[in-house]
Amino acid sequence: MSKLPHVGTTIFTVMSQLANQHNAVNLSQGFPNFPVDSKLREILAENANENVHQYMPMPGSPLLLDKIGELVQKTYQRGVNASEEILVTAGATQGIFTTIMALIEQGDEVIILDPSYDCYEPTILLAGGIPKRIPLDNNFLPNWQRVEDAISDKTRMLITNNPHNPSGRVWSESDMIELENILEKNEHVLLLSDEVYEFITFEHKHISAHSRPKLHNRTITISSFGKTFHITGWKMGYLIAPPTLMLEIKKVHQFNVFSVNSIAQATLTKYLDQVDVSVLGSFYQEKRDSFRELMKNSKFELLPCEGTYFQTASYANISNATDIEFCKELTRKHKVATIPISVFNADQKDNKIIRFCFAKDDQTLQNAAEKLCKI
Ligand code: PMP
Ligand code: GLN
After folding, report:
1. How far is CA 136 from the centre of its chain?
2. CA separation for the pair 23, 265 (Å, rounded)
3. Confidence (pLDDT) at 83
4. Which residues lie across from 161 on neighbouring strands?
5. What is the DSSP string of 160-196?
């Protein structure tokens, strides 16, 4: 008996392991390989001697909840009630899991947009829900008519991810308007808005559900300190939801983790006063530009990248292999590990596109590009 008969080991684990095994440059799993801000490390060291080693309150340290509220106010001009609408989570993954467990009942339909991040579907299934996988267009942007057509009386939730992993695409104002219109016509549908890359956009600023008042009363917004502060291993994040939904989410949270790592919460509380998240976009834009420049003479066709730290590319000019086979071969033979996109699609639909993570130091990117340009 298996509750998830079709689920194996995640592609991120598979490819990172393969990279290590073959001593390949790892541009697969999304994590930075450069040092963490020294200020953050100093605060962490100071906190080791403070009285912050016991359980925090269940929803999160009140000081951290206030700081998150200030960040949301400053970034999106949205006032949220820190004690009623914010929950500190052990990363975005736990926020997503807890939300789905709390709000999805047996037989509820949940719409996800493919290619979709890998934790959505299994969590819906564990909650007894029915995933409805709707493909994004070939350019990885939503076809809103298709989304609207997928909504039925049984639809309880739409999960969106913008800026989008794996494609690096970012939604425009007209996408947000379409989304609002569809939800306005379908009051029974909640929105789970996964915005973990909210601070990593380039030419166009991210439009958050936070800055769309029409969405507030039915939206759960997911954020990740892992992405924002280059600390994916800390597994720290938060979600924001209206009070009635939050009551249900907290009921699950208290038996899922009860409360989140105390020293990390205390550290982030102080760090939030000393860090400027608005520079993150230009920091990664430089990396995107330099990686694209380094790859200019390769046979890969680089696709648009407007946000996140992922660059997608077509290898149709290089090989006819499936993307999974191509990625494995690239790791084994050419010593660069990447992620195949088909694993995020229903039925593993394969368009011969792979994903590079460019959250890496210059040396790593140069080294990878040199190998990739020889193919
Ligand atoms: N959603 C998306 C779209 C992601 O890319 C990731 C991870 N990288 C997560 C959720 C999970 O984030 P966390 O590591 O904070 O659990
Ligand atoms: N979200 C990261 C990525 O897209 C991986 C996180 C994980 O390994 N679970 O690469």
Report:
1. 17
2. 35
3. 97
4. 194
5. EESSPTTT-----HHHHHHHHHHHHH-TT-EEEEE-T
- Which are the contacts of 35, defined by CB distance < 8 A and separation ≥ 6? none
Q: Look at the block and give the residue holding tokens 């995933």.
A: 131
Residue-level pLDDT at 286: 98
On whether the CB atoms of residues 231 and 221 are closer than 8 A, the answer is no
Contacts of residue 244, Cβ cutoff 8 Å, sequence gap at least 6: none
All structural domains of the chain, each given as residue ranges with its CATH number in brackets, are 11-30+278-373 (3.90.1150.10), 39-271 (3.40.640.10)
Residue 141, token pair as written in the block: 């942007």
The residue whose CA has the least distance to atom 8 of ligand 2 is 12
pLDDT of amino acid 234: 98
pLDDT at position 347 is 87
Separation in Å, CA 131 to CA 81, 124, 155, 260, 344: 32, 6, 10, 29, 13
Q: Which residues line ligand 2 (CB under 6 A)?
A: 10, 12, 29-30, 165
CA of 243 to the centre of ligand 2 (A): 30
Q: Which ligand is nearest to the CA of 161?
A: 1
How large is the angle between the packed helices 11-21 and 323-334, nearest 10 degrees? 20
Beta-sheet pairing, 310-314 with 301-302:
antiparallel
Confidence of residue 166 (pLDDT cuts 50, 70, 90): very high
Give dist(CA 214, CA 210) in Å, integer: 10
- Ligand lying nearest the CA atom of residue 237: 1
Which H or E element spans position 37? none
Region 77-94: mean pLDDT is 98
Find how far residue 251's CA is from the centre of its chain: 24
Query: Is the distance from CB of 131 to CB of 124 less than 8 angstroms?
Result: yes
Ligand 2 pocket, mutate which of 10, 11, 12 (most atoms under 8 A from CB)? 12
> CB neighbours (10 Å) of residue 107?
10
